[in-house]
Amino acid sequence: MLNRNNSLTSLALQKFKRNFWGVFSLGIIVCIGLVSILAYLFAPDDSMNANQMHLSIHSKPPGFEVQMLTIPSSIESEQSFLSKLFFGVENTNTEIPIQSFKVLNNELHYVEYTSDGLQGIEKQIPLERFPNSEYNNYIENRTFIFGTDKYGRDYLSRILIGSRISFFIGFIAVFISLVVGLLMGSLAGYYGGKVDAVIMWIINVTWSIPTLLLVIAITLALGKGFWQVFIAVGLTMWVEVARVVRGQIISAKEMQYVTAARALGYTDYRIITKHILPNIFGPLIVISAANFAAAILIESGLSFLGIGAQPPMASWGAMIKDHYNYIILGKPYLALIPGICIMLLVMAFMLVGNALRDALDVRA
């Protein structure tokens, strides 16, 4: 039996490797996953939530360059490396976009940046504010590859950090849906009778409620927030898992290996977890991949409606909400870039799901 299982696994893996779009999509998912985990290493703005605002350079196009003056703060921030890696840097310095600067009488005179060819306000700051009066180390030419958003924040950094919510909501939502769906589906399929009737009634009632409406209701009950959205999405996706598990167990419990397990006196828990569920794992993998994509779309919709991840937290759906009106104002990229990111990630999960379905089809 072990050799047979290994041969079937090897065969499925070989079939998956031959699917170009499946392997390519899996590579995209892995890359986005690494970027989401290490977002603050790749983001030009590594402050918490990439929330450095510069209203004077708001809504600038991709490739925009400006001189940036950083005024060091006297407040010292004590952060561990892991805290900076996963939560960003607690930036207490002040950043000011400038047009020009000069040094007069031990003071740094600078002209603040203004758009539309206007002359900015000239201000000055003592050179003593800079360590060893080395002001040159605190003036740099900064390039915004994706431009800036309507608050003047680096858009590339917001996109990279926003990938965290869209990516990890899939894992958490699918985990919750698997836990609840496996429990409900296993009980309904294995025991049948009144247990099946009650659980199917719950499934049908849940199924009849529009998904987005149910998520909104759960979100409002739990409150707005980061984890509340994850839980709400997961609690609405267990129905599909429960229906699949119920159908598979109804078919599997009539098999000879289940009858043999009962004859040996094994408990129902062991029969379900050790004998039935491992043999219906294939369909669960496929539906989990589809649920990943569905969770990403639901979270994006919630963020667009304003009840998902709350500001200043970066989220692709919230970024579309903040900038969708810029489509008719001549700057459609502000809404299109996060929209393309969502489309790319959802498409990757759907293609991986299709490839897994074909690879796990033993009849092919």
UniProtKB/TrEMBL annotation:
Pfam families xrefs: BPD_transp_1, OppC_N
Record field: transmembrane: 20-43, 165-191, 198-220, 226-245, 280-298, 333-356
Alphabetic keyword roster: Cell membrane, Membrane, Transmembrane, Transmembrane helix, Transport
Chief site of localization: membrane
Domain called ABC transmembrane type-1: residue spans: 163-353
SUPFAM superfamilies: MetI-like
Membrane topology reported for the UniProt record: Multi-pass membrane protein
UniProt similarity note: Belongs to the binding-protein-dependent transport system permease family.
Protein name: ABC transporter permease
Organism: Winogradskyella aquimaris
Lineage: Bacteria, Pseudomonadati, Bacteroidota, Flavobacteriia, Flavobacteriales
